[in-house]
Amino acid sequence: MELDPAQTALVVVDMQHGFCHPDGSLYAPDSEAATEPCAELVDRARQAGAKVVFTRDVHPPDQFEDTHYYDEFDRWGEHVVEDSWEAELVEDLDPKDEDLVVVKHTYDAFYQTELEGWLDAHGVKDLAICGTLANVCVLHTASSAGLRDFRPILVEDAVGYIEQDHREYALEHADWLFGEVTDRDEITFA
Amino acid sequence: MELDPAQTALVVVDMQHGFCHPDGSLYAPDSEAATEPCAELVDRARQAGAKVVFTRDVHPPDQFEDTHYYDEFDRWGEHVVEDSWEAELVEDLDPKDEDLVVVKHTYDAFYQTELEGWLDAHGVKDLAICGTLANVCVLHTASSAGLRDFRPILVEDAVGYIEQDHREYALEHADWLFGEVTDRDEITFA
Amino acid sequence: MELDPAQTALVVVDMQHGFCHPDGSLYAPDSEAATEPCAELVDRARQAGAKVVFTRDVHPPDQFEDTHYYDEFDRWGEHVVEDSWEAELVEDLDPKDEDLVVVKHTYDAFYQTELEGWLDAHGVKDLAICGTLANVCVLHTASSAGLRDFRPILVEDAVGYIEQDHREYALEHADWLFGEVTDRDEITFA
Amino acid sequence: MELDPAQTALVVVDMQHGFCHPDGSLYAPDSEAATEPCAELVDRARQAGAKVVFTRDVHPPDQFEDTHYYDEFDRWGEHVVEDSWEAELVEDLDPKDEDLVVVKHTYDAFYQTELEGWLDAHGVKDLAICGTLANVCVLHTASSAGLRDFRPILVEDAVGYIEQDHREYALEHADWLFGEVTDRDEITFA
C-alpha cells in the first residue's frame, strides 16, 4: 500500500504512560508492546515527509463534575489526569516542533479538537493510524475520520489492546464499515 | 429502569424499507423483527409524553461522487436512495407532527444533523435507542450520543442485526464504554 | 453573475410571520417588503433547477431555561415559539417537497443543524442568500457559510431589516470578509 | 463587573507580529496599541487564577489551494504564514505552560479548534475577550462563543482595529445580539 506523503498523516493515538508504562493506571502489556512499532512508523513517516500527529488523552481533574452522564473516571477510575506523569507521551515517542500534538478529552480525537481543521489546512486526506487502545480510542478516532471523509488505515501490528479479541473486533469493524487494515510491512510512504 | 419523560427521547434508528422489508436491498430478517418492538416502545413513549425521534438513512444519488474516500455505495451497493421507496420508514412506524425525523447521510445520526441542537433545545438528556443495524447505525449513533454527554440506553430486544454476534458486540461495546443496555420490560417512562 | 444551478442553492432566511407579518412580535416593514423579492428568486431558482432552502427560526418554550447565558427571549422578548403561528413561513413562500426546510434555534442556520450535511450530500457549493434580518440571521448564516468554504452571495434587494444602516453594515461586512453582494437583476441561474 | 475566576477565561485574540508590529503585513497602529492593555489583563487574570487563552491566526502556505471559495490570501494578501515571524505572538504576551494557545485557520477561534472542548473540560463559562481585529477575529470569535452559550464580554479598551468605526460597529453588534461590552476598569476577577 503506497501512501503519498504529501497528503498523508501518521496518527499515533494515546501512547502515554497511563496506558503503556507498567506504572500506569490503565497499563496493558500489549499497549507497551506497540511502542516500538509506532516509533518505527514515526521514523519512516518523517523521512518520507508525511505529517505526524500524536494524540494525548488528558482529563482535567474536574472534567466530569459538570457532565450529565459521560464520566470516564466512573468507568475507568482516575487516569491520565492533566499535568500528571501519566498524561505524558512515552519517552520513545518524542514529538518534533512540526508535528501536531492533539489533546483530546474523550475517546475520539476529532471530537471538539483541532484535528480536522489542521488536516484540512495542510491538505491531508489519508491517515495511517496506530497506538492504543485498538477498540477504544483508536477505533473511535478511525470511525470519526471515516465519516469526515478521510481514509483511515489501521496498522494492525502497531496497535495496543487489553485482550486479543478486542483487537480483532476493532480491526474487522473498521475494515468492514469505513476504513482499511494493513500491517507495517505493507505500508510505503512514497 | 425509570426514565423521566420530561428529559427523555426514544430514538428509533433507520427502520426503513431498505433494511426492514423483504424487498429492501439491505434486508435482514432480524431488522424486520425489530419493527413491532420499536412500535410498542413508540406507543409507550408517546403515552408518557417523552419525545420520539426517527432517523432515516438517505443517500442522494450523487452523494459519494465528490467524496475522497467515504463511499457507502461502494461498500454496500446502492441503498436507501433519496426519494425512493427504500428510504421510507416502514408502515408500522408512523411519525406524528410533534416527532423529530432526522435525515442522516452517514452511520451517525449526530454527524452534521439537527439532532444535538433539537435535543438541547427541548431539554432532552436521556436517550432510549432502538432500531437497526445494531452494530452499524445504532452503535455509531449511541457512541456519538455518549461523547456529547447524553445517556444512551440501548434496548436490546428492539434492535435489528444481520448476524447475532454483531448484536452481541454492539451491546457489549456500548455498555462497556459509554452507555447502558436494557430490555423493553425493564424500561418505564415515568 | 451566473450561478450554476447544479451546485447552487437559494437560501431564504427566516421569512416567518413573527418577523414579516404586521401582527408578528418582531415585525419590521422592511422584512415584509422582502417577501415578494424572495418569492421571485424562489421561482427563478426552481425553474432553473437550483436547490431551494428555507430556514425557520424556532424556539421551544423552554429552550433558554437550561442555558447559561444565551437567551434570545431576554434580548428580544418571546418570539417564533415552536408550533405557533409566528413560527410559520409567510403564505407567499411555500416550500415544496424537494426543498429543504431547516429549523434553527440560534441566529446561525449552520449551527447544530443539518444544513452543511445536506448541502454537501447534494453537491451544493454556492449560496444565494436572501431573507431577514440582514444583520442578524442573514449575516450570521452567511458568515458561517463562508468559513465552511461555501460561496455566500447576499442579494441586497431581497433582504429585510429594521433600520437601513443595519443593512448597509451587514452587506459591507459580508462583502469585505467572506462573501459577495449583488442584486436580483444581476443574478442568472444558468 | 465581577467575574468568578473559577469559571472565567481571558481570551486574547491574534496579538501577533503580522497584525501588531510595524513590520507586519497587516499592521494597524491601533492593534499595536492594544498590546499593553492585553498584557495588563493577562497579569490580572493570572493573579486571580482565571484561565488565559491566546489565539494565533496561522495559515499553512497551501491552506487555500484546495478550497472552493474561502481564500484569505486573496482578500488580505499573504499573512501570518505558518512558522513565520509574522505568526508569532508579540513579545509582551508570553504564554505560560498552563495557558491554552489555540491555532486557528479562519476568523473564528471556535471553528474546528479545541477551544470549546477545552473550555468545557475546564468548567469555563464566561469569557473576557480582547485582542485584534475588533470587527474581524474578535467579533467572529465572540459571536461563536455566544451561540455556544458562553458569556462573551468584549473589553473595549483592549481591542485593536484598523478604523475607529469598525470598532464601534463590532462592539454595538456584540452588545446587541449575544454579549456584553465593558472596559478594563470595570472588570474584577474575583
UniProtKB/TrEMBL annotation, chains A, B, C, D:
SUPFAM superfamilies the UniProt entry points to: Isochorismatase-like hydrolases
Location of the Isochorismatase-like domain: 8-185
Top-level taxon: Archaea
InterPro entries named in the record: Isochorismatase-like_dom (IPR000868), Isochorismatase-like_hydrls (IPR050272), Isochorismatase-like_sf (IPR036380)
Molecular-function GO term, any one: hydrolase activity
Keywords, sorted A to Z: Hydrolase
Keyword Lipoprotein: no
Name of the featured protein: Isochorismatase
